[in-house]
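Example record

The entry below shows one chain as it appears in the dataset: sequence first, then structure tokens.
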Amino acid sequence: MSDSQVEGAASTSGLGSGKRRWTELLAGRVKRQMCGPGTEQKLQESAVHLLRRHLNLNDLLLEVEGAPRKMLCLNQLIDPEACTNLSSSLIGSALRDQASRLGVPVAVLSSRLVASSITQICVSDGEPSHRVLLSAEQRKKLSSLLEVAQYLLAHSMFSRFSLCQELWEVQGSLLLEVVWQLHIQNVVSFQELLESHADTQATVAWLFRNLCLLCEEMEASPYNDIASAMLSDLVQMFVLRGFQKNSDLRRNVEPEQMGQLAFVVLQRMLIFALEALAAGMQDGSPQHKVVKCWFGVFCGHTYDRMISTDSPKRFFSHTLTQVLTHKPVLRVSDAVQMQKEWSFAKTHPLLTGLYRRLFTMLSPEELVGHLQEVLETHEVNWQHVLSCMSTLVICLPEAQQLVKDWVARLLARAFENCDLDSMVTAFLVVRQAALEGPSVFPSYADWFQASFGSSRGSHCCSKKTLVFLFKFLSDLVPFEAPRYMQAHILHPPLVPSKYRSLLTDYVTLAKTRLADLKVSLENMGLYEDLSSARDVTEPHSQAHQDVEKAIAVFEHTGRIPSAVMEASIFRRPYYTAHFLPALLTPRVLPKTPDPRAALIESLRRADKIPLSLYSAYCQACSTAEEKKPESAAPGMKVEAVCAEGPLGPLAAALRELRAAMTDPTQYDVVAARVAVVSERLGAALGRAEEDGSSGGSQIQLSVLTPGLEQQEREVADLLLTCFCQNLIVASSFASPDRQGPWASRLVTAMCGRRLLPVVLTRLCQLLRHQGPSLSASHVLGLAALVVHLAESRSVLPEVRVGLPAPAEGLSVAEFFSSLLTFRTSETSLFCLKFCTAVISYSLCKYSSLSRDTLCSCLSPALVKKFQFIILRLFPEARDPLCPEDTADPPWRPLCRPSADWQQAALCLWKQRTFQELLKEKEFHLTYRDWLRLELEIQPEVDCLSDTESSRSHNYSENSDLVLSGCPGNRDIFSRLQEMAAGLEQGPGAPRSCSPPQGHFLFGVFRRRLQALASGWDVAARLQRQRELLVYKWILLGLPPSIVVGHPQAGRPAAPDCTEFFHLVNSELRNFSHGSALTHDLTVHFFRGLLSACSQSGDPSLTADLVLTACQTECPLVLTSALLWWPRLEPELRSRWRRCLQGPLPQELQRLWEAQRFGRSCLLPDTTSPAPGPAWLSAAALYFEIQRAGKDRVKSQLERLGCQGEELLVFLFFFSLMGLLSSHLTPHGRPRQAVDTPKALDICAEILGCLEKRRVSWLVLFQLTETGGGLGHVLLRLAPDQYVRLLPFAFYSLLSYFDEDALTREDAFLRVAVDMYLKLIRLFVAGETSALSTVASRSRERRGQGDPVGLITEARRLLLRSIPRCPKESFSNVAEVTRRRPLWRVCRRANESAVDTALPLRGQPGCAALAPWPLTCWAVVASFPVPRPQVSGGCTRLSTVGFLQLLATSEDCDPDVRAALLSRQQAGPDADLYREPRLF
């Protein structure tokens, strides 16, 4: 109210009394108030009451947006500037009042307020999903907020539990630094926050994600100190809580939540790091940053505050155990073969750094003891164990003796108990330690001789120990390096004379293996390190090293080295053929005898040099003395010239250039260094007065016979060697675009008029005549040199060469391209390497420049040659390219010692920049180019087989890549094919309206196949397969229209494909792998279909009619299309759009939808609808599972809706075909077959889904052609051999059966008995031999194809299941058991079984079984002995009992039949577990 209003009110209220002014009234009131007692206290209370009553709390804390929802207004709490005028006591008072109004506890309200403020802070700088650290502004706001929270907490106005709950609700926006700040400011501890979340797995996932982000941000963050403190505090807490003294995570009791959580987080981080290392991460990648940072937490200073506890030590010990036992997939044989690659120098630096940090917490004795314990109690990762051993002996010298003692104990225990594990461990440990050199551990040869070369060795105790030793050494022979076998032969174990044959047998075996490896024992050097991991050197090269070492020993001791004396007696061939010629190299003898001359004289006096050889040496030295004035020091001319002649200053200048180039701070002096090199080049070659720029003239070269003078060749070699070395050094620390100008400047110096022809001639010699022999570093260096020479093409002269090049001059770039030929397989591979290196270097060097600059540095001819050779050699390059592929050019991988050139070439081919470059007209490979390059190849030395070459031709003739550059080529090809077909069929005639008939060739094929022998023996199958390959080759060479035919004139009827369908169903199906034809035949059919459509009045209808007929008559064509769809679809769409216009027909669209459905099923969130029929969608899904390489698909399959039940049944069928294909195919086709364990896992996953949905799948094992059921389609999708082997697949899944659910099905018992009898029949007929043969050839599948074991388990299943099946299950079993006796099958079995059976037939106790067929006796021989016994109420199948049931002429298995009859008649109490009765 205003003063006037107040005065008016006062005057009107006092009617009849005197008026008094407002000031008077106020003065009187103040006077009265001041006179009362306690006035000051009352005044203060009144003021507070007035503030509480009139303060707008909604503006301070609450903002009402509409009842009943309210949101907290938090600006003043999280804004430090606004909060300076508000005390914590005022905020607390306001919160208390607001809580009373809202009816909630003040602690809950304040906790929600703080949590909401924290959320606002975290999201204030954008989405926090990829951050863990706060910005400076966020950190300032958080500090202000935490001050308020601490006040509220101190005055019991804050709930930690409520805050934790609120924070977990917004965990997606919660930054890790906020949680850490809450912890260190004592608002909410980390442990309290983590334990408040009920979902432990979600907590672990949140922690793991944030720890990875923290490690990734650590290196580049401006707040590195904060990040380091965070990581240190978190790791300390996790170690302290996860590895407490009384915490034993292996006990059965439930551990405390925080300890378990901390343990799991640390474990997950370690596993992530180890798997990233195993995957081969690149330096600088996010994974590399995470691993590097996480391994850094094992530094000792991280645990300074925990030194009084044992938690860090337990943590380090546990970590070392986890590293040593991580993914133990390598076998001992793998370790023996590969351990040379696991030395300290070859192990990843991050892993060796981790080992060194782990070693700091444990003493050497503890480390060796820990290694011993892990090896004795765990399956280990041998790579980690042996690399850890190398690090141990290198970094801890005191551990070396401990390792020797440990190995001695291992050997003693091995020979005492014939313990193979101890023996293996001892040898692997010794060999690994010996790899690190004699300064660390004795050489393997010395250790072997010391351990087994005397009578004190443990192997001399008895014959048993000797047999054990030589059996072990013999088992190593196929896997170990030649060095170790040489050591065993040259330093053999001491063996008593009566057991000498054991040593002789081993030496013979080892020498045979060395001969297979083309390693000569006689040509070994005198001082070779037999434990060295390097390759075996040539004898002459090793001989020179031996000479130098012998001279050094002689100079030191004054006596002939003992190794030389021993070689002169025991190794005479090497001594006379290699050592003496190297020692007696002719030279100018010094006036004062040097050590070499003194050694030669000592050997001559000891009669160790043949007189004739010594005389020849003296004569040669005299000749060298006479020629001394003309030529200085033969054999050392290069060194002498480099040191004293013109090349010496040049070499020094090149070394100075390399020093300037390798130091990034000296890039500014590169020009000066190059100027010095240029000046000394002129001195080396004899600069002519007119020498200057090389432009304006032509260079004449002879490609076939290029020649150089000696001085010119030496200069060229020195320059090229320097360039290659510089490039490799520069590429080791920088990509080509960041290496500076050194390469361009040095190439400019090479372009002088006198020097350029020399360089080009030498490059001609190297690239055209010596290309395949060049090393990788030479290829890379010369490729970069070619690029820089092409860059200067505008100022360089043309090169005119003789035949076979064109008469006109070539540019420098075209000249280099002409040097690359495809005459032989070696030159083709070199051309691939060189083109890959040139293009990769260009793309890296000029990545930031314009497209024109890049094109100017690349020769179109070279790019075309690269396209030609990669499409010819690698079928995967013909696949459609992924448009999202943005990989970098593979230059950096090529600079590594173990570069994979094939992978690099494919990577370059798929690179997006390169594919965009190919769109330029000058780089397009035309048909003329392809034909010219193809004709250059000599067929007799082609690296491709005839079949592979034919496939390459077919692709090239029909690919858009080759033909689209010439618009008329494809039409010309089509006309030529039609002409060929017309000439073959006779004069053309107008089309009739009669029904079309198949091509006469199919009739010829049918008659020839009918004349062949039928049957499934190997000879008949091979003969039939060879005949079909000829037919296939004929069909692929003829026009595709022959396969499909032409529609009738004027009618929309489908073309007649009956003959082709019959050939597929009756013959080609049986030689397919799984459920698909080969790619070439599939493409040929669809090309014929498109050809028929192009001649039809209604192309879409024609295509739909043919493909609809395929669904019932030849479904294998459709499944083949689905398998090859990624390669088939681009051609189908391109041809349809070009020739027929419009969208794809409905049935082709159905194939695309099926393939899209299969692909979407493997995606995490999307699933496309499955098109009909269900078997088509199931085939598409199974092929996608194979392409993706997934073996765990249960989660994806469970997302299928109700439509998935029928689809799952068909999918199970295709998985069964895949399982059988993996058993029958030794290596599998890369696009189709998977390995057996993965195929079995896929079957098991699908079977589990079927059983979970209670969908019956037994119908797949009862398929028949009659009627229109599943058999009509599915039996046409599988080879007959696969169908016959379904019993094997049925019982291969035995361990995955849900027996309780199956026994409740009426059909189970009938199917199980039927499969069992068929399985026995297959075994006796020998058809399961293919499975066991393939399994025995493959090391991974060994033991997976055992039919005998499968029959045993199948019989046990039946005997378990029969009493539990309902009586309704026995209605049809009697028919199953009355099968054709096996007696007749046995009679037709292989007669070779007689020799195996006869020894068993005369054994005691078998007289009653004498009439059995000999084949059955052979089966007896295949069973294990002794006879199994009754155990636990269940009888295993015994040998005699099993053969009895096989030999009976009435029943296949009397026990099973008796059990069935007993169960059917007397109920479930029959004794089913007794031994088989003898009939």
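Notes for this example: Strands lie at 62-64, 70-72, 698-701, 798-801, 1430-1431, 1434-1435. Residues 257-278 form the longest helix (22 residues).
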